[in-house]
């Protein structure tokens, strides 16, 4: 989860000081995996360049309507972000590091997809929609 969080920050915040992932970085990180899901949304297309021309690498692209995607993000990641600030998770995340990292990852993901907005903010759904169609 720390790797995912770092990758999202590097990919979506050029001023973060974190180097964006390249193909060799992804290979070190996912060395033994045979299948990866959602990776471009975490690390960006830059790290995927080395795989695009490889005929043995398969990509499955699923397109959804922007409205359904926004609703899905709000109902999954958005709910995790909101729950992180309510009892009991607001306390448990401080004692369970894996839970804390997961909730931090969810928050960073939502911020990246919603241009820094939080779930329920006035501009969050518009930002999610715009980032999906771009």
From TrEMBL:
InterPro entries xref list: P-loop_NTPase, Sulfotransfer_4
Pfam family, any one: Sulfotransfer_4
Protein name as catalogued: Unnamed protein product
Source organism per UniProt: Aspergillus oryzae
